[in-house]
UniProtKB/TrEMBL annotation:
<dbReference type="InterPro" id="IPR036866">
    <property type="entry name" value="RibonucZ/Hydroxyglut_hydro"/>
</dbReference>
<dbReference type="InterPro" id="IPR001279">
    <property type="entry name" value="Metallo-B-lactamas"/>
</dbReference>
<dbReference type="GO" id="GO:0042781">
    <property type="term" value="F:3'-tRNA processing endoribonuclease activity"/>
</dbReference>
<feature type="domain" description="Metallo-beta-lactamase">
    <location>
        <begin position="18"/>
        <end position="211"/>
    </location>
</feature>
<keyword id="KW-0378">Hydrolase</keyword>
<keyword id="KW-0862">Zinc</keyword>
<protein>
    <submittedName>
        <fullName>MBL fold metallo-hydrolase</fullName>
    </submittedName>
</protein>
<dbReference type="Pfam" id="PF12706">
    <property type="entry name" value="Lactamase_B_2"/>
</dbReference>
Length: 248
């Protein structure tokens, strides 16, 4: 399994870098996981977008879906051979208005995932966990039958204990670490401390802290996360178009 980071800021793009989007590849299968602002531009640098097999969305906040519309235009207008004539976009239907927008003429079609069942997309087996967020959002546990590796993506969520079992023993964890450890008041995302604690308790091997804040020092965010996680976990700050390989 290869993971390519296409954007990693929370809320809005900054310094030329977009919001959430990850290209997940296994064998010749190409999945776009979330499709935030700036993601299509970065995707074009690493893969002809027409070679996508599917798009999978955690929730309908703009920083996760801002580029869905332009991707639909891409499918409609861009020249070239499409891998899928109609691009499937998987999302939940707990927000009917946004779910309906996944259909775009005969170019893209929305498919509802059932969070209580495993969704199989090519070699990827995906299970879901409802997160704690102001809108319905799902964390995803993605098992790749080619590499036998497991990626967990928390999507957007505040910390809650059930995340530990959902992330248990993952080879790689991508977390919503939007806050430094001094964040006070209501939190709809995790702090550096909470990500570190989750990683340690869940015994994950590697963590990419993502959905990052635009302020402060990201090196501090990394250090705080590492301090909370301890030495057994490898914690990484994302870079745009960074590739992470999980192989057996
Ligand atoms: Zn977000
Ligand atoms: Zn959100």
């Amino acid at each position: 399994m290869k993971i390519t980071v296409l954007g990693y800021y929370g809320g809005y793009p900054d310094k030329g870098i977009g919001t959430s989007g990850y290209l997940i590849q296994s064998g010749n299968y190409n999945l776009l996981l979330d499709c935030g602002s700036g993601v299509l531009l970065e995707l074009e640098k690493v893969l002809n977008p027409l070679q996508l097999d599917a798009v999978l969305l955690s929730h309908y906040h703009s920083d996760h879906i801002a580029d869905v519309g332009v991707l639909q235009h891409y499918w409609q207008l861009a020249p070239g051979q499409k891998k899928e004539v109609v691009l499937p976009i998987y999302g939940h239907n707990k927000d009917e208005e946004n779910f309906k927008k996944l259909d775009w003429f005969d170019c893209t079609k929305g498919y509802q995932y059932n969070p209580d069942e495993t969704l199989k997309l090519g070699p990827l087996h995906i299970t879901f966990k409802l997160t704690k967020h102001p809108v319905v959002a799902y964390a995803m546990r993605i098992y790749d039958e080619n590499s036998k590796k497991t990626l967990v993506y928390t999507a957007d969520t505040r910390y809650f204990d059930e995340l530990i079992s959902f992330c248990k023993d993952a080879d790689m964890l991508i977390t919503d670490t939007n806050f430094y450890n001094d964040k006070e008041g209501t939190k709809w995302h995790m702090t550096s401390d909470e990500t570190g604690y989750l990683a340690k308790k869940a015994n994950v091997k590697k963590v990419l802290i993502s959905h990052l804040p635009q302020y402060g020092s990201l090196d501090d965010l990394l250090k705080q996360t590492k301090d909370a996680a301890g030495d057994s976990v490898d914690i990484l700050l994302p870079k745009v178009r960074q590739e992470i390989l999980l192989n057996n």
